[in-house]
Write a structure and sequence with these properties.
It is a single chain. This protein is of the alpha+beta class and 182 residues long. It has 2 domains: 75 residues, Orthogonal Bundle (Arc Repressor Mutant, subunit A), CATH 1.10.10; 81 residues, ADP-ribosylation fold (Alpha-Beta Barrel), CATH 3.20.170.30. The protein is 32% helix and 17% strand. The protein is built from 6 helices and 9 strands, in the order H-E-H-H-E-E-E-H-E-H-E-H-E-E-E. A 3-stranded antiparallel beta sheet has the order 1-3-2. A 3-stranded antiparallel beta sheet has the order 4-6-9. Helix 1 crosses helix 3. It starts with a helix and ends with a strand.
């Protein structure tokens, strides 16, 4: 994705996941906002964004962070919100093992508290180790944790899978986390 589209993607992440009020928007309870309202808010904020560019950012985003409604009139972030939204995802049974990428400096805290969502509404997990490595790398020296998701699920912990394939759960207690030994 070229630099201008990356800037727009970051703008969309900020507005649709964390701070819609910063451009005068309100997300509905499921995180949706009208595309026309978003485009107008972007213009007011000095961000050059039109519908074809928006559609390109949604389609080309490697993590599929955003989703357009089937009629193309609304948009929302697929996951990663720090504002309260109800994505309407049905609980699903996860695979036996999921992965979480983090930085090595976070390990002591995770050993004590487990994985907590921090400023977000859910802990994010991936189905493959490579994705977790990439996520961890964004935060420092990457470490991949194995989460015994099947065991958690059988113990009553809920899991959801976002539209872009990210696994979501409210928290992961340390007892369900396998830490690297090296």
């Amino acid at each position: 994705m070229d630099a201008s589209l990356v800037r727009i993607s970051k703008f969309l992440s900020r507005v649709l996941r964390h701070a819609p009020e910063s451009v005068g928007l309100r997300l509905d309870e499921a995180g949706w906002v009208d595309v026309d309202d978003l485009l107008a808010a972007a213009t007011r904020a000095g961000v050059a964004l039109d519908r074809p560019t928006l559609e390109r950012v949604v389609a080309d985003n490697d993590k599929q962070r955003f989703a357009l409604s089937p009629d193309g009139l609304r948009i929302r972030a697929s996951q990663g919100h720090s504002v309260s939204v109800e994505l309407g995802l049905a609980p699903v049974e996860p695979p036996e093992v999921l992965f979480h990428g983090t930085a090595d400096r976070n390990l002591d805290s995770i050993r004590e508290q487990g994985l907590i969502p921090g400023r977000r509404t859910h802990v994010h997990l991936s189905a493959d180790e490579a994705t977790a490595v990439n996520v961890g790398r964004r935060h420092g020296r990457p470490v991949v944790l194995r989460v015994r998701a099947g065991e958690m699920h059988r113990a009553g912990h809920p899991f959801h899978r976002s539209d872009n394939g990210v696994w979501l759960t409210p928290a992961v207690p340390p007892a369900y986390t396998d830490f690297p030994t090296n």
